[in-house]
Design goal:
single chain, 78 residues, mainly alpha, three-stranded antiparallel β-sheet, 58% helix, globular
Length: 78
């Protein structure tokens, strides 16, 4: 996943940052589940924004997580 996102940065593409509530809405996961997955290295880590407690997630990393989950669920049922 990291190599794919590194390529996105090098191509000068627009990077979008999602705040926690948007990530929750997009993934359907609760706040506690998000942070549990982050602690288990199963969800992208947030990046520090301005402010001591202000964080966000890179949209492409969240999208990659969702694509991976979809692919895993499809292959598990096949």
């Amino acid at each position: 996943m990291a190599a794919r996102n590194q390529a996105a940065f090098s191509e000068n593409t627009e990077v979008r940052i999602l705040r926690r509530k948007k990530v929750e809405a997009r993934t359907g996961l609760s706040r506690s589940t998000l942070y549990a997955l982050i602690a288990a290295n199963k969800f992208p880590k947030p990046i520090q924004l301005t402010g001591a407690q202000s964080v966000g997630w890179i949209e492409s990393e969240v999208d990659s997580f969702l694509r991976d989950r979809i692919a895993a669920s499809r292959s598990a049922t096949a």
